[in-house]
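Why run this: before we spend reagent on co-expression, it is cheaper to look at a predicted model of the complex and decide which construct boundaries make sense. The entries below are exactly what would go into the expression plan.
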Amino acid sequence: MQQYTNYPLLQHNTFQMDVRAALYVEYNSVDELCQFLSSTDFEHHRNRFIHIGAGSNLLFAGDYNGLVLHSAIHDLEVVEDTSEYQLLRVGSGYVWDDLVAYCVDHKLAGIENLSAIPGEVGASAVQNIGAYGVEVCDVIDRVEAIDLQGTPRIFTKEECQYGYRDSIFKRELRGKYIITHVVYRLMKSPAFKLGYGDLRARVEAEGDPTLDAVRKAVTAIRDSKLPNPKELGNAGSFFTNPVIPREQYDTLKSKFPDIPSYPIDETHVKVPAGWLIEHVGWKGRALGHAAVHDRQALVLVNKGGATGAEIMQLAHRISQDIYAQYGIRIVPEVNYIQ
Ligand SMILES: Cc1cc2nc3c(=O)[nH]c(=O)nc-3n(C[C@H](O)[C@H](O)[C@H](O)COP(=O)(O)OP(=O)(O)OC[C@H]3O[C@@H](n4cnc5c(N)ncnc54)[C@H](O)[C@@H]3O)c2cc1C
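The model came back. Tokens follow.
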């Protein structure tokens, strides 16, 4: 276990916020985590702590005057192997994209569309990461966690209550459980999902679809569309796409005929937040050192030296303008850490 005070977090958040944590603790095993949770150091910080992964969905408002916990549990084991699937039990600190690479190399299907998403395994189960028509909950079998008293609990997929970029760990159980392992069910026969954007065209240009071809195509599309956080600090999509009643959408459509939507159920539709941001004129615009990316309106960027407060202010201005024009409230997907 490593423990540091006044610890720099610059390498631990993709928005490139140069902030510090009063205490930073990284544990290597479930035993080490339980040991720390029963320590006086944890007792002192019990009311002010956050567990981070790779910090790719966080925005620190400033220095964090509390405890930052991080998992360095990196194990990966096959816990069940049948003719149809393998269950992989993976440590929460395992890098997500390394897991995708492992699965593609071992001909295990299900997460190839989620290639190149930053972050770690623990957060994948908190965030219900998704891309190109796939959500990680499609392959999650169960989630292993520890409560703050050190008691283990296994959550079935149903108990995780997954929704769009949502889970019980983001709501009722936020800050109450630490995820230590995730068990994924990966299939031996791929069921390719290529219906999103130009994925099919890209994959089929290389011949019959393979897991490797999908991974390469998804990675190439993402590289061409999204700013690399190492070059331009960002946390991917800043806002979730708002879900609104169909009636409200129909009224808007009569006023703004181009407004796009995706059906959710009989009474609700999802409106792309990027379209709304672009149509209130924020795409490519800056506010101080914070800006809206010029190719991808859903991504807010740190142009260099921005503070968390500046990014939050920009986000606030954008949502105000969208509400004024469309009557739709957009909410950040990114977790504000204050
Ligand atoms: C360039 C870019 C592109 C992105 N593209 C996508 C995309 O296509 N789809 C998508 O869904 N997301 C995307 N994201 C967002 C991000 O990658 C995901 O949300 C990812 O799951 C965050 O992982 P992380 O390890 O960085 O978690 P962090 O950002 O560190 O934490 C996220 C949340 O998980 C909690 N958490 C982390 N680890 C644990 C744990 N072990 N136990 C309990 N709670 C924990 C944290 O407290 C926090 O609430 C993108 C981000 C970037 C920068």
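The mean pLDDT is 97. The longest strand covers residues 177-187. Bring this page to Monday's planning discussion.
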